[in-house]
Amino acid sequence: MKRIFKLTAFLLPVLFMWACIEDYRLDAEPPTVQEAGFSFIPTDESDNILQFTADNDFFLMVWDLGNGVKAEGRKVTGFYPLAGTYTVSLTVYSKGGSATFTEDIVIENTDPTLLDRPLFNLLTGGIDAVDGKTWVIDSARVGHFGVGPNPSQNGDFPEWYQAQPNEKRGSGMYTDEYTFKLRDFYFGWETNGLVYLNAAQGANFPGAFDPGVGDLSAPFVSPGGLNWNIVEEEGQHPVLSVTSPSFLGYFAGGRSYQIIHLEENEMFLRFVDQANNDLAWYIRLIPAGFAPPVDPGPEPENPDVSFSLNDLVGNGQKTWKLKPAAGAFGVGPAPGSDAFFPNGNDISGDRPCLFNDLYAFNENGTYTYDAQGDIFGEFYMGVASEGCQPESNLVGTPGAAWASGQHQFTFTPGTPTEFPKITVTGTGAFIVLPKAFNGGEYQQGPPRENESVTYNVIGYDASTGELNLSLDISGDGGVFWNFTLIPTEGNGEVSDGSFSLQDLTNNGTQAWKLKPGAGAFGVGPAPGSDSFFPNGNDISGDRPCLFNDLFIFSQNGDFEYDAQGDIFGEFYMGVASEGCQPESNLTGTPGAAWASGNHQFSFQPASGNSKPKITVTGTGAFIVLPKAFNGGEYQQGPPRDNESVTYEVFGYDPETKELTLVLDITNDGGVWWTFVLIPAS
């Protein structure tokens, strides 16, 4: 098995090093040669790879590994593919001065395979590239330079800012060249007299000036004698380091770069800002003289996406969720891509609180987001930690508007040159990802008031119900968030033949009761949701007096409620206590009409986009929950005389006979009771 070696090389600017040495020489005794001693051992991977460790810790430790490589730090790793004797020295610096310890290292056997490493070859051109391989910044490409958060939140890419083609012309960034040779780990740095640096680093570069394109430029000539190293550590991005005072592209205080992507003609690097640890910078390089394929510009928007308003809202209302699979949630440089994050990985198991969210679209233009009681929180929302957590953590934060709620939506059909579009509007309105909007991302809450966000429908498969949405957060076609939604189970797509009066009455008389299980009785911000209560819990054991009730429909229009001798009493009925109790407790109370009794019902079949409906009529007539009616709930009895309550058939399974009824108690689609009934026999 191939073992992984570790190498540490933290490099400081030479100018800074000289300044520190000058400061520390003013007092105290210099270190002794013995204090500059070190030890070394072969690594598990090879006897020709040695791990060096300084005996003592100093503020600055500079190694010459005798193989052409210089490095810094208390621990470093040296490669010695060829047999021979190598003189290794360590120079340490203290307040009083410096001291150097030197030792000859004997490598007994040649092992040239150590240099034949994929990353080494891609970087340098390999052993046969005598002149090495020279890289330059890919200035003609969007995003060749940019910045994002540290640590990365949604993948390693310049999430916050991507430079436009040639945006930094005149800074020195585009004229610098970087040559890597395999022999002696040689690094050639050609500055052509000018380098580009972060404004916080200007004090380290005499003559730094404003180039007119942001940050600073400075006159600088490479001193030569430079080296490079690559560290490959299991589970982490490889790290490319270059020796002081050199750097790649843009100086932000460090000389170590995470290799996010390295191919023959492209290298994409990430490095942390040493003056602001919350920032990570990115540069993209290509081989000098390489002409990338000409970007033909964006493809014409697909005229073949057949997706309509009826597909979105179904038979009146349709609820969607993220597909639990790879590719369903991601960000990349093109519509449908997740190359930036999570790059082909399925994260549904890591973020279950994201993949259970519901997005319901109603034919009346209302749109409801239901978090199902939990969210994937991020710091921009104002929460104290990142990751899955209760939705209640948003209360009182700047991100409170991103909690479950109702908004508005509009649908724009596709044309021969444009995708269909879904626009959600409202304070905190979003689909899937709260922070993403057209042309940007929120860095912190709250969201803007009454904001609209438009998503392109870039794909739809009518056979599977998969809906592909894309959102450009760069404003210039550089970065896209992409989501794949699927309809939720039983979300109102009534089976072929719909639900009929015969199904309800069994061609005569049929008794129904609540299904004893989770999801059979609940209230939430969307049809089918119980996220307000009981939030996924099975309460049939706690309320047996509710789950034994019978609701009996006869073909002649008679409807009977049979409480089976007990009720789940609540104070609005006028009973003395809440909970399971004898039905006789209703006698003489304002809620007496809600006891067992006979009423009437009517049935309205499905028609067009309208779902089937069941209406019960009579003083105290109800299904499952006495207090709930269309547009409200009773706060106290008695019920109104000869009241009618209409329930919508949200779903029906002709095989299991499960009948799902929903009732809007707000009249604006904001709060719904959901009941799942099954035949009593």
TrEMBL record:
Superkingdom field: Bacteria
Q: Which InterPro entries does the entry link to?
A: Ig-like_fold, PKD/Chitinase_dom, PKD_dom, PKD_dom_sf
- In this protein, which residues make up the domain named PKD? 63-114
Q: Which SMART domains match?
A: PKD (SM00089)
Gene3D superfamilies for this protein: Immunoglobulins
- Stated name of the protein: PKD domain-containing protein
| The organism's taxonomic lineage, starting at the top | Bacteria, Pseudomonadati, Bacteroidota, Cytophagia, Cytophagales
